[in-house]
Amino acid sequence: MNQDLWSSEKNKNYQEQAKKLADSLKKDPVLIRYLQSKQISLSCIDQYPFRLARWRKHYEPCLHCSDLKFCGQKKCGFYEGIQLEGHFETVLEACRYQRKEREERSHLAYYTYSELALQFEKASFQSIDMEKESKAYLQVVSRAMNASYENQGLFIEGSLGSGKTYLAACACNSHAWKKEYVSFVHMPSFVQKMMSMMGDGEYNQFLNRVKKADFLVLDDIGAEVVNAWTRDTILLPILMYRYDHHLCTWFTSNLDFKDLEKKYSQTSGMEDKIAGARIVERIQSLAKSIVLSGKDRRLKD
């Protein structure tokens, strides 16, 4: 009998606590707005007060967040959401900043091959602060924008840090946003990868991804390891395919055409000189040349 009385009293206390908590939660605008946004009946507050109180506590960091880098959740950009379909359960939901980040990076799904640096993944011509740049730089930006829009090839020559890669990334992203398949190749890295894959079945797969992309950037061309094999088995087939199929191709380089031809003519033999000249001639047939000079625009630590 005493046990029954104790159980009854315990149940009574639980009901009182649940009602008190439910009454408090019904006054919480954050919880109310969330339930309404999910079209969940507010009657669930009386049914699940303790679970909702737990949810509310876990949701608290999101109320004071202004950016993903300040996220206070266990998994950055995600919080516990509520589902009520016959029973109560929580599921991970992307926050508004995470959804915005996904939207801003959705174009990356159209990269068939990418060696784009993280800081360039959202690069765009529109993000360039025109008021802080020189007239000469703005002229190059204008030509680059027009070339991208008109689907014309471009060879951007310039010194280290002049901003060549950034402009090429802007163009590549622009074409990806238009749902074109694009590739961004950092030539030194790509050549090393292809050399390591000699005899591997993936070799042709990666080469074809680059060759056949609607828009291609060959970044830092001339800085890769150059020998007869890399020149004639990797680079030349890419250039020939794109020329034959009229595919838009951009290049960036620290070298002008004269030095680039020397780079691809590795020996004094006539055969290599002809091969080097053939590479440059094919690049010139694919792209118009512009020179980018000025201040170092690389990100500083």
Commentary on this structure:
With 301 residues, this protein is of the alpha/beta class. Helix content is 50%, strand content 15%. The chain contains 12 helices and 8 strands. It has helices at residues 2-25, 29-37, 44-47, 49-63, 96-104, 135-149, 164-177, 187-196, 202-211, 228-244, 257-263, 270-286, and strands spanning 78-84, 88-94, 111-114, 154-158, 182-186, 215-219, 248-253, 288-292. Strand 1 (78-84) and strand 2 (88-94) form a beta hairpin. Helix 9 crosses helix 10 and helix 10 runs parallel beside helix 12. The chain is elongated. The N and C termini lie far apart (74 Å). The mean pLDDT is 88.
Give helix % range: 40-55%
Mean pLDDT over the residues: 88
* Elements, N to C (H/E): HHHHEEHEHEHEHHEHEHHE
Q: Report the portion of residues in β strands.
A: 5-15%
- Secondary-structure-based class equals alpha/beta
What's the arrangement of secondary structure elements?
Elements: H1 2-25, H2 29-37, H3 44-47, H4 49-63, E1 78-84, E2 88-94, H5 96-104, E3 111-114, H6 135-149, E4 154-158, H7 164-177, E5 182-186, H8 187-196, H9 202-211, E6 215-219, H10 228-244, E7 248-253, H11 257-263, H12 270-286, E8 288-292
Parallel strand pairs: 3-5, 4-7, 4-8, 5-6, 6-7
Antiparallel strand pairs: 1-2
